[in-house]
Amino acid sequence: MMMEEQSQETAGGGHTVKDEEVERENLTAPDAEEGEEEEEDEEALPHSEILDIFEEGLARLVQDPLLCDLPIQVTLEEVNSQIALEYGQAMTVRVLKADGEIMPIVVVQNATVLDLKKAIRRFMELKQQREGGVKHISWRYVWRTYSLVFQGEKLEDDKMRLKDYGIRNRDEVTFMKRLRKK
What's this model's pTM, rounded to 2 decimal places? Predict the structure, then answer.
């Protein structure tokens, strides 16, 4: 018993580990009560007000020169993509549609053709949500009817990396209608 008390004494002498634990509890107890009060204050705000506060903060964030290309109703995924782009971890592939519209699609540096197709799908879904366009697109039909072409070469192998096709940052890929086989 005597050995335990000696091992618990600190170099300052006299105080045991148990005394220090009690002091820590006394110091943290009021802080815990303040945290509970803050939680109660947060719960007092209705969801709509919290949403408004969040949207105001997000609007200020999007005004930053780094993120100024993003829309007002930005998603976390779009913010992360833009940051990855700035750090060189991602690249922009410009996808040219038949109507002349260019879609700037952000994918990671070592993305595959399938990753590009998924990013195009996500881009179109977000665009439709913002503009209130068509409710449903059959992507199975889209990929059966159209193909992606880079410098005359069809991107047919979904598992092949874009780099292997020679696609680099800001390169243009065309969304081209497939010819029917007779």
Answer: 0.65
